[in-house]
Amino acid sequence: MPRHCRSVLAALVTAALAVAATSAGAQPPDAWSLLARLRGALAGPAPVEALFEQTFIPAGFTEGEQETGSVSFSLPECLRWDYNEPFAKSYLLCGHTAWTWNRGEESGRRYLVAADEESGLDLLRLNVDEIRRRYRAEAEAASEGRWTVRLAPLGKETPILDAELLIEPEGERLAALLYHDREGNLTRFTFDGYRLIARQGHFEPPPGLHWLTQ
């Protein structure tokens, strides 16, 4: 899977959770309840889109390259992320199939992925029970009433070495996601500008392109 395609989820959620008070000494809510609420909101009746800024920092470095774009959630099946210029490109992941294409070109790439594969933002396609089977989770209060959920794999088979989700106070929006892959590279996403999607066909590959199967 391309690096940019690996870079992306999650989550990302609407069950009813009473978020604990943020006063000093308050205990954070259960990490799994936070993840369930977040994923439930992103899997709501209407697809959701957010703007993102992505930073990729190679292992051993303190700075890296930045890109911006938008990410769209139609969980549990689909994620789509569209990068802005100067390297405008798009990735669509639905079920067992992923598509990638560059704007303005006549062909794109199509390949199969495991339905339960997670290696970045697509972690959010997994339901909470599946995440629980692969990761430990801890929650703690963060600044501005937000919550931090940290994930650590239970085994070595996961492509993610660790992950951290910053969740907004109401529990239904992801403010940031960062993770290290097994090579030690760090990918960090920040999100804002959430809105509902009304565009038809947004989670379908663009028509008229020639798809190269990999």
Brief summary of the model shown:
The chain has helices at 3-6, 31-42, 128-134; strands spanning 48-57, 65-74, 78-83, 89-94, 97-102, 107-112, 135-141, 147-153, 160-167, 174-181, 186-196, 210-213.
Write down how many β-strands occur, each being a DSSP E stretch of 2 or more residues.
12
CATH class annotation: Mainly Beta
Main structural class:
mainly beta
CATH topology: the name is outer membrane lipoprotein receptor (LolB), chain A
List keywords for this structure.
mainly beta, outer membrane lipoprotein receptor (LolB), chain A, 12-stranded mixed sheet, disordered N terminus
Describe this structure in words.
By secondary structure, the protein is mainly beta. It has a single domain (3-16, 25-213), classed as Lipoprotein localisation LolA/LolB/LppX (outer membrane lipoprotein receptor (LolB), chain A), CATH 2.50.20.10. It is 11% helix and 42% strand. It has a twelve-stranded mixed β-sheet. Strand 9 and strand 10 (174-181) form a beta hairpin. The longest helix has 12 residues, at 31-42. Residues 1-25 have low confidence and may be disordered.
Question: Mind sketching the topology for me?
Answer:
Elements: H1 3-6, H2 31-42, E1 48-57, E2 65-74, E3 78-83, E4 89-94, E5 97-102, E6 107-112, H3 128-134, E7 135-141, E8 147-153, E9 160-167, E10 174-181, E11 186-196, E12 210-213
Parallel strand pairs: 6-12
Antiparallel strand pairs: 1-2, 1-11, 2-3, 3-4, 4-5, 5-6, 7-8, 8-9, 9-10, 10-11
